[in-house]
Amino acid sequence: MPKQHVVLIMPLSTYEWGTENCGGVDSVCQMFAEYLVNHSDTSFKFTIIGLDPQSKTSYTGEVINLADNVDFIWLPASSKQTGLKIPGILWQNWHIRKLLKLLKPDLVHTHLWSFLLGCGYKGKAVVTVHSYKKIARRNVGLINNLLHEKVIPKIVKNRKDYVVVVGKQLEKALLKDGFQPEVVHNPIDQEYFKADYIKRERKEIKVVTCALLTPRKRVEDSIVLFNKLVKSGLGSSLIIIGPAADRLYTEQLKKQVTSLGLEGKVSFLGKLNKTQIVEQYLNADLGVFTSSEETFGLAPLEMLAVGLPLVATEVGILEDEKAFFEKMGVLYYSDSLSPDKINNLVLKHNVDYSKRALETKFNITCIFEQYSDLYVKVIDEVK
Known about the structure:
Layout: E1 4-11, H1 24-38, E2 44-52, E3 64-67, E4 70-76, H2 88-103, E5 107-110, E6 125-129, H3 142-156, E7 162-165, H4 168-176, E8 182-183, H5 190-194, E9 205-210, H6 219-231, E10 235-241, H7 247-259, E11 266-270, H8 274-282, E12 286-289, H9 298-306, E13 310-312, H10 317-320, H11 322-327, E14 331-332, H12 339-348, H13 351-362, H14 364-382
Parallel strand pairs: 1-2, 1-5, 2-4, 5-6, 6-7, 7-8, 9-10, 9-12, 10-11, 12-13, 13-14
Antiparallel strand pairs: 3-4
């Protein structure tokens, strides 16, 4: 019996897994793609259309074979390599339309709903929604906001796609608009679980945070928290990992560090690859994550997966599964959170328990099996 052909359309900055990263959805998609390459599937053949957020190369349509059952085609997100200024959504959907006509898949699974608009594909599709309307979207201009907050939601209502969301906030928003989404969590990369974290007995606490430097991530609250530790004699250093996605905001953070007299204690490392991030986590005593909004929130879970104790805001999966995370000792951020309580967390954190509990719930094999079952269900509905 021939394998069913599934086309995956996903943002991917590389297929040299973990060497580059453009943010949360890119991280998640790299995990899924790497898993497919390393695990032969007897039921499906996969073609990945990888949308390169940085448009590093020109579009050629070349099919790159990554494994027996996995082919890959690069699609630059913009037309900049051609010298033409074509709106991104038109450029992407034009190429996706051509590729889907050529590939004739049994099922399409996309991580951005906009990829299916105007592509002419009439078959069944699974859409994993990572942001919706104003939820977890950056303000990038009036026309773009109108498109994603008004136009696309109205158009996709007329489609019959199977909708997956990564958390309860998105589930509620889509239910309100008449969709029937299923929740499938994001996985955590195995490299974080494999890291051999060793607790150190230090008088001062080394703190690390990781986020895109944008106002929504509220990294300023992580700096304020660290300043509390310094004033109490517990703060040693704060490492801030993440690209300066908003340059004005990044400058404000650096001014905040100066105004608090924390120069020499706070370091901005910029964008790091997966190996470098793990190294920073292994050298820290505490992970901090103070974002104001997440649809899932992968970065704080990666800190926990390495073995770090965590202080975090009640957002995304940390809100959805609060009892689970409190059981492993996660402290939820508030203005009244005391340095003594944080120090007690660092001293008493059970590394082995938190790593085991997290891996059981968020391992890539378990999450992909949910998608694989979903593919079978949706394809069978076509027949």
